Amino acid sequence: MNRATKLAAGSVVVSLGVLGLKALAWWLTGSVALLADALESIVNVAAAGAALVAVRLAATPPDANHPYGHAKAEYISAVLEGVLIVLAAVLILNESWHAWQAPSAPALPVQGLAISVVATAINGAWAALLFREGRKLRSPALLADARHLLADVVTSGGVVVGVGAVALTGILWLDPLLAGLTAVNILFSGWGLLRDSVGGLMDEAVEPGLLGRIRSLVSQEAQGAIEAHDLRTRHAGSTTFVEFHLVVPGEMRVAEAHDICDRIEAALKAELGSAVITIHVEPEGKAKHQGVLVL
């Protein structure tokens, strides 16, 4: 079991534990805000399960039907998580609206809040771990799970404030109001996750900063060539795909051109980590006098 799969499995365990704590907090208090928080945790469990399946599938080696691997399974999982986040927000808004129409004071607020704070702290710590490891492993599924948990932390923070304010002031409508406001925040989080994940499925180019670094490395390492053009990039999970045409002098031997390609590939893989580099070598008559000029 690789590191990403272990983390995804850990998310399932953590989500189940947090769900139990939040359900207990709601049962003790009867607060609609804590009920909404527990509802979102049910979605967290489903999302963590989807991430686990996606990470395991993404780690499957390429085969005859999927010669480029299975890494895009992580983007599908991330899209599902975005949908689930939006669904959780809609459920919370619905519960908030009903509670707004008939607000009530929570019972045992201190005990309920204490349990909710513990659950929120667990989620926050696990989200921080997933963000760090997800960036290191370049795993869309783990990063999506981290964003989902972070949205849950924000929700829980609003819920704790709301229930605490109701207990201290007796203003009953604060409970559903803050639950509704945190639901709106979750909607924005879900939308951002959906946008990023769909971009991965649509083969968006790498971010401008990384693209500039790739162009610079090609220019520095292609001594002996003339230019590189038609540079294209994309991500698929933790793997970066780079392809371009490399123009060399017409009299250059195949072995010399191959050496240049090897040098460029080595530099790009050192920079990118997991990468697939495709270089099409062309004679100087194919030069377009644009793209990446060789230093």
UniProtKB/TrEMBL annotation:
Pfam families found in the cross-reference section: Cation_efflux, ZT_dimer
SUPFAM superfamilies: Cation efflux protein cytoplasmic domain-like (SSF160240), Cation efflux protein transmembrane domain-like (SSF161111)
GO cellular component, one term: plasma membrane
Annotated transmembrane regions: 7-28, 34-55, 75-93, 113-131, 151-171, 177-194
Protein's name according to its UniProt entry: Cation-efflux pump
Keyword Hydrolase attributed: no
Main localization, broad class: membrane
Domain Cation efflux protein transmembrane, chain residue ranges per copy: 11-202
UniProt signal peptide: none
Record PANTHER family: MITOCHONDRIAL METAL TRANSPORTER 1-RELATED (PTHR43840:SF15)
Gene Ontology biological process terms, A to Z: intracellular zinc ion homeostasis
Xref: InterPro entries: Cation_efflux, Cation_efflux_CTD, Cation_efflux_CTD_sf, Cation_efflux_TM, Cation_efflux_TMD_sf, CDF_Transporter
